[in-house]
Write a structure and sequence with these properties.
- This protein is mostly helical and 189 residues long.
- The protein folds into two domains: 97 residues, Intergrase catalytic core (hpI Integrase, Chain A, Orthogonal Bundle); 61 residues, no CATH class.
- The protein is built from eight helices and three strands; from the N terminus they run ααβββαααααα.
- It has a three-stranded antiparallel beta sheet with strand order 1-2-3, with no helix packed on it.
- Helix 1 packs across helix 5, helix 5 packs antiparallel against helix 6 and helix 7 runs antiparallel to helix 8.
């Protein structure tokens, strides 16, 4: 589970993308994940950090000594992939041990929040480093497997809400791209 959650966060993956990886989809020599048939049947390559690649290598040496390439990288019972329920229950267990309260199913924190955090951290880092957002935003869109810039713009709004100074810089480059929330501002989304 620690490798699974690190992969979801460090690569900005959907939990389904990580849980449905096959052994052959994890290239530990190149540090690349092959995401197959994800949302809207998209496939893509996702780079891993050297640290995560090393953790995957250690995990694989312990779990996949006799595995075939078609076996699940994160196996569940009876030759099936790890279940969504298994992920959820382990996540809740880790939250409990860390003393982090949970608002209940759908109220968070949620496993999918790792993906949101990844995207916001990327955007924050690029803005603070003065990177050309016009060049980097398409990279984030592709890396995360988004079909449109509107899907990626959601993270721009999250980043703008959390880091208002970044919102000002992003608006200068992408006027009207960051969606505004309707209502009184106290609504949850």
């Amino acid at each position: 589970m620690p490798v699974f959650f690190r992969m979801v966060y460090a690569c900005g993956l959907r939990s389904s993308e990580a849980r449905l990886l096959k052994v052959e989809d994890v290239d530990m020599d190149a540090g690349i994940l092959g995401i197959q048939h994800s949302k809207k049947d998209n496939s893509r390559l996702v780079a891993m950090s050297d640290e995560l690649t090393g953790r995957c290598r250690d995990y694989s040496e312990n779990v996949h000594r006799l595995s075939k390439g078609s076996d699940w990288f994160f196996p569940g019972l009876h030759g099936k992939p790890m279940t969504i329920g298994n992920i959820y229950h382990n996540f809740r267990r880790f939250l409990w041990r860390a003393g982090i309260s949970h608002g209940g199913r759908g109220k968070g924190p949620r496993v999918h929040d790792f993906r949101h955090t990844y995207a916001c951290h990327c955007l924050k880092k690029w803005v603070l480093e003065g990177k050309d957002r016009a060049a980097y935003l398409p990279v984030l869109k592709t890396y995360m497997g988004h079909a449109s810039f509107e899907e990626t713009a959601y993270y721009l709004r999250l980043t703008g809400d959390i880091f208002p100074d970044i919102s000002i810089k992003l608006e200068g480059c992408y006027p009207n791209m960051i969606p505004r929330l309707e209502g009184d501002g106290d609504e949850t989304y």
